[in-house]
Write a structure and sequence with these properties.
3 helices; 98 residues; 53% helix; mainly alpha
Length: 98
Amino acid sequence: MEVKGSSKKMIATQEEMVANKVPIPYRDQCAHLLIPLNKCRQAELYLPWKCENERHTYEKCEYELVMERMLQMQKIREEEAKFKQGGSIPLIPKTANT
């Protein structure tokens, strides 16, 4: 399933997230990495030095999503600034010959 405005696809299904009790705020494109991380955490009694590889992979995925959203917001702000400066959207695009 694709998420609008994101380059990452949803890998975990709703059923998998419900079965693994993933909290609703964490049901994003990185949920498929959170499921094994939570299983590892429970198996290792939440010891902070355990499950480092799973945690790093999950946190990297979340970081990439945040950076992607920041870039999208920056583009939106630039477009708004351009529009406020009087740059209107042309109805008829200029061709290469004119």
